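User: Fold both of these, please.

Assistant: Here is the first one.
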Amino acid sequence: EWNNAVAREAFALSNLRKTKFAQVPTVSFFVSNTRQRFSTEKNLVNNSFDWIPSNFFGFKLNIPLPTSNNVSEIVKAKHDVKIAKNNSESSKIQSELLIKTLESDYAKAIFNSRNQREIYKLRRDSYEKALLNYQEGIVGMDRMMDAFKDMVNSNYNLIASEIAIQVNESKIDIHNKIR
């Protein structure tokens, strides 16, 4: 998006220069070297006539007069340049905001993964204790199964948080390649 905005800005500047230069006076130089045959006779095939050389050169000055169309084209081109610069600046700000958002999401994913790892350790420890208590007959099977279910869920959350880290890394890589 930002690269497109920069390209549109360059195009608008180029268009402004072209429009302004169209109003600049131009000087051109011309040269002509010809030979002409003048005949008063009716016979066109007769080659005995003399060819008369004709040489001339000169300068041509072209001064465009300002018209309402020319003036409005220049004003429109200037306006287009301002719009393109604003769009370019806006795209740059949006790109920087997106980068900060992606970095923030990545940091949150890492923080969440650390928390999920600690929760998983605690749930696994709780399950191991519940299993020992079940084997000794202190708690029922439902208590041990609840601890097992909590451990599996926390492991699932840990895996999901690790995937979230990889997804955020991929988003950052994609954004950096596009930029």
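And the second sequence with its predicted structure:
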Amino acid sequence: NSERFLTQCYLYSLRDLRNREGISANLRRIFRHGRGRDPAPSEIDAVVQEMASVQALTTIEMFADPSQWPTRLAAIELDFLPALQESLRRGRGVILATPHFGNHHLFPVTLVSLGFRFNAVYNFASRHRWLEKLYPDLRMLDVGYSAVDLLKALAGNEVVLLMDDVDYFPDGRTMDFFGA
């Protein structure tokens, strides 16, 4: 089935040497911080397997029948929406910092559909630029190369999304978020 096929494709990508080293370094750092130890190889493999599976389901959902999107968007609960609107009324833009979750592509699409100008910072943003064609108020920006665009977005009172678990540059260097 398509889910199994896509999971295998994503596993191949995640296990590629360029990605594997960054993922392993991040998981070691997370385990040391949260559990006081390095992860076992089987734990790293389990996380990578889950990442691939979630990404496969996300991809299938993103390319599902577009007529279903209004139903999906209506079912999303946005408890933070009043706080976001209030913050934007102050006129300085808003930074949303969150780790990846479920369908991380649906989040910006949802906010753009609600009328927000949205800027999402992704590692390898070029892979996600097809969303910009569908949603003109959405910009996909690359980690490590987006500071000027982010400052402009905030000055223009727009929403900026930082995936704070994507804490490595495409060349494998890591960065700290909020000192951690």
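The CA atoms of residues 85 and 116 lie 9 Å apart.
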